[in-house]
Automatic annotation (TrEMBL):
Gene Ontology terms: biological process: actomyosin structure organization
The entry's keywords: Cell junction, Membrane, Phosphoprotein, Transmembrane, Transmembrane helix
Region annotated Disordered, chain positions: 357-379, 423-442
Domain of life according to the entry: Eukaryota
Transmembrane segments: 471-493
Domain FERM: 1-266
A Pfam family recorded for this sequence: FERM_N
Species of provenance: Asarcornis scutulata
Annotated GO CC locations: adherens junction; cytoskeleton
Name of the protein: FERM domain-containing protein 5
Annotated function: May be involved in regulation of cell migration. May regulate cell-matrix interactions via its interaction with ITGB5 and modifying ITGB5 cytoplasmic tail interactions such as with FERMT2 and TLN1. May regulate ROCK1 kinase activity possibly involved in regulation of actin stress fiber formation.
Record flagged with keyword Cell cycle: no
Keyword hit for Transferase: no
Length: 540
């Protein structure tokens, strides 16, 4: 990658490799050394955005969830969105009740291992795969029952389409959660969805603000402000506190991009947004892509042969000998390498972490209420919707994207081709051959403590630098304004320009008084001083 290569170049290269035309829904995400997530900005140099040393680890992600994923033009696009939502389901971002969870998992099974076959799928086969952070035997039996009786004959494309249609009806569809705290200090998750701004707190959706009701977003330090204008000229300001200033800025930029993408009619309407009311202070940001309406219009014009999709089945456990294992990375044939590349870009997050805290528990979701589809979203934003009995706590929303530093992680990635869930038994086997979690994390903890001690002083220095830059910027603006006023004064008093604008100013009594009582004596005094200095120089 050239040092001056822009993010757009890398993204176009990736989409060309994937044979993807409906690419505006996707983006590239990376994590900086401070464990803060970022979206790669396409108008800036890739290398300059990275604060780490190469090689850089980035992840291909859905950035803007389609309003109606089933209406996407091409199957390759639907497949990539399917992989993302399947990942959201595993990490607890897509919260749902037990019946919905079982149906979604059954769709995944049907799409990736096909019809139920008693000869290939022994009793309890669904328990060999993990679709959620945690689930019970009752849920596993329900998944197998739906897969056996209701989905027979569905092709992978049909199952994926049904999966997308079902996922779209859930309250947490499209949620990319940002952990924050409200003014009372209570934990909350903020998110931007295709339909508006959402706040999830405990087991409820406490706020849902449609995009046309959001008038402004800004941040100051760790504080994020959302200005809302609702019916009957009711105006409110929602205030939340992010863990760090960098996290708050990331939240603000995500909000600006999502509002521009879903709300505006044309990309020409996009404007540069400032995070502060003062033009010389704060951050400035501008969304650089197309908006949703333009993307849909462009998709309707696509006319080509559907590209080939290399799907990979789920990796079963060794207790199912009739189902073949997924290939390791080193032995993947050329015809399957593209699927492996999709697997790597679908996510480098390891699924071996068994310590996920998750809201998906069949024991607590039996009576959970989820409003059906868009009807719930279209209702008043004042309604508090109960999304589950369990608190919303996505397992991976705040965790950094780990870097695959050795071949073991790459082999694990290859065994979950295209983001397929790992087998539970193979998880345990792979963990048995690696050091314990405590042993593996100990050096990292020591390193984190050292970095934390050194970064505390660095944070203060950064705050001082920001303050100095703000003061210098203010002084520069003030000097500039004074210089412009001086030039205007000289033009008014000394030039022979006789335009209507200047003539009207010169004829005002205030200007004539200023000219004769102040400016002329000041000019004579200044000219006298200049002549004295010149004569002194000549004498010496």
């Amino acid at each position: 990658l050239q040092r001056d290569a822009k993010g757009q170049y890398l993204f176009d290269l990736l989409c060309h490799h994937l044979n993807l035309l409906e690419k505006d829904y996707f983006g590239i995400r990376f994590v900086d050394p401070d464990k803060q997530r970022h979206w790669l900005e396409f108008t800036k140099s890739v290398v300059k955005q990275m604060r780490a040393q190469p090689p850089f680890t980035m992840c291909f992600r859905v950035k803007f969830y389609p309003t109606d994923p089933a209406a996407l033009k091409e199957e390759i696009t639907r497949y990539l969105v399917f992989l993302q939502i399947k990942r959201d389901l595993y990490h607890g971002r897509l919260l749902c009740k037990t019946s919905d969870a079982a149906l979604l998992a059954a769709y995944i099974l049907q799409a990736e291992i096909g019809d139920y076959d008693p000869g290939k799928h022994p009793e309890g086969y669904s328990s060999k795969f993990q679709f959620f952070p945690k689930h019970s035997e009752k849920l596993e039996r329900k998944i197998a029952e739906i897969h056996k009786s209701e989905l027979s004959g569905q092709t992978p494309a049909t199952s994926e389409l049904n999966f997308l249609r079902k996922a779209q009806t859930l309250e947490t569809y499209g949620v990319d959660p940002h952990p924050c705290k409200d003014v009372s200090g209570n934990a909350a998750f903020l998110a931007f969805t295709p339909f508006g701004f959402v706040v999830l707190q405990g087991n409820k959706r406490v706020h849902f603000i449609k995009w046309n009701e959001v008038t402004k977003m800004k941040f100051e330090g760790k504080t994020f402000y959302l200005y809302v204008s609702q019916k009957e000229e009711k105006k409110i300001v929602l205030t939340y506190f992010a863990p760090t200033p960098e996290a708050c800025k990331h939240l603000w930029k995500c909000g600006i991009e999502n509002q521009a993408f879903y709300k505006l009619e044309k990309s020409s309407q996009v404007r540069t947004v400032s995070s502060s009311n003062l033009f010389f202070k704060g951050s400035r940001f501008r969304y650089s892509g197309r908006v949703a309406k333009e993307v849909m219009e462009s998709s309707a014009k696509i006319k080509r042969e559907p590209p080939e999709i290399h799907r990979a089945g789920l990796v079963p456990s060794r207790s199912c000998p009739s189902i073949t294992h997924g290939p390791r990375l080193s032995s993947v044939p050329r015809t399957r390498r593209r699927a492996v590349h999709i697997s790597i870009m679908e996510g480098l997050e390891s699924l071996r972490d068994s310590a996920h805290s998750t809201p998906v528990r069949s024991a607590s979701h039996g009576d959970a209420f989820v409003p059906p589809g868009r009807g719930g979203r279209a209702e008043s934003s004042e309604r508090v919707a109960v999304i589950a009995d369990e608190s919303y706590s996505p397992a991976d929303s705040v965790l950094p994207t780990p870097v695959a530093e050795h071949s073991l992680e790459l082999m694990l990635l290859s065994r979950q081709l295209n983001g397929a869930p790992c087998s539970i038994e193979e998880e345990k086997e792979s963990e048995a051959g690696t050091p314990s979690a405590a042993e593996a994390e100990e050096p990292g903890e020591l390193r984190a403590l050292c970095l934390g001690a050194s970064s505390h002083g660095g944070t203060r220095a950064e705050q001082v630098n920001k303050f100095v830059l703000s003061v210098l910027r203010l002084l520069l603006v003030t000097v500039g304004l004074l210089f412009v006023l001086l030039l205007l004064l000289i033009v008014l008093t000394e030039s022979d320009l006789d335009t209507a604008f200047f003539r009207d100013i010169r004829q005002t009594p205030e200007f004539e008084q200023f000219h004769y009582q102040y400016f002329c004596p000041l000019r004579r005094w200044f000219a006298c001083k200049v002549r004295a200095v010149v004569s002194l120089l000549i004498d010496t």
